[in-house]
Write a structure and sequence with these properties.
The chain is α+β, with helices and mostly antiparallel strands. The protein has five helices and ten strands, in the order E-E-E-E-E-H-E-H-E-H-E-E-E-H-H. A five-stranded mixed sheet has the order 7-6-5-9-10. Keywords: Disulfide bond, Redox-active center.
């Protein structure tokens, strides 16, 4: 797949998880320097937000907008992933009072590669495409958007609608089970 960077076609490295497919586990670094894994099966719905760089206006505004939109969701693990350096991200989170989502960094580009978002060339080489993934509690991708042009924003309304639907759905007990395929 490719996106455009200021109109220039730019290929992405990796394979994007498909809608309805399993979300891969990806290793990220928390602001305290510890490692964590996001994606896959989890007790709560996950919203994974790929942010190319908080040093740009579109990205910093997007992070703040998501932070405001997510304050009402209690059973949601919202994670904003960026390839910026750890110290910068710590300062940004504190200065902008980002508290409805966890800001993390992807120093090894593990998340970027596993979600097919790593920019392969040009001035944004080794950054991520702007994207969102909503992952249900069974670890399946329920919604995804990879923004076609890097300077454009995500469709916040569609993303929040997908989050709201999953956070407020009642579990029926029917669905995907990671244990089922392992016992076959």
């Amino acid at each position: 797949m490719e996106i455009t960077v200021h109109g220039t076609p730019t290929p992405l490295i990796g394979k994007q998880p498909t809608l309805g497919g399993e979300a891969p586990a990806a290793r990220i670094t928390k602001l305290d320097g510890s490692q964590n894994v996001i994606g896959m099966i989890a007790p709560n719905t996950q919203l994974l937000i790929a942010i190319p760089s908080l040093k740009t206006e579109v990205c910093s505004l997007g992070a703040k907008k998501f932070n405001d939109l997510l304050k009402t969701f209690k059973k949601l693990n919202a994670v904003m992933v960026t390839t910026d350096d750890l110290d910068f991200v710590k300062d940004f989170a504190e200065k902008e009072s980002i508290d409805a989502a966890e800001l993390v960094v992807d120093p090894d580009r593990n998340f970027a590669k596993k979600y097919g978002l790593l920019i392969s060339e040009g001035k944004l080489k080794d950054r991520m495409a702007r994207a969102v993934y909503v992952i249900d509690r069974d670890g399946l991708v329920a919604y995804r958007e990879i923004v076609p042009e890097i300077v454009d924003e995500v469709n916040y309304d569609a993303c929040i609608e997908a989050v709201d639907k999953l956070v407020n759905e009642k579990k029926t007990g029917h669905g995907h089970s990671h244990e089922e395929w392992m016992s076959v």
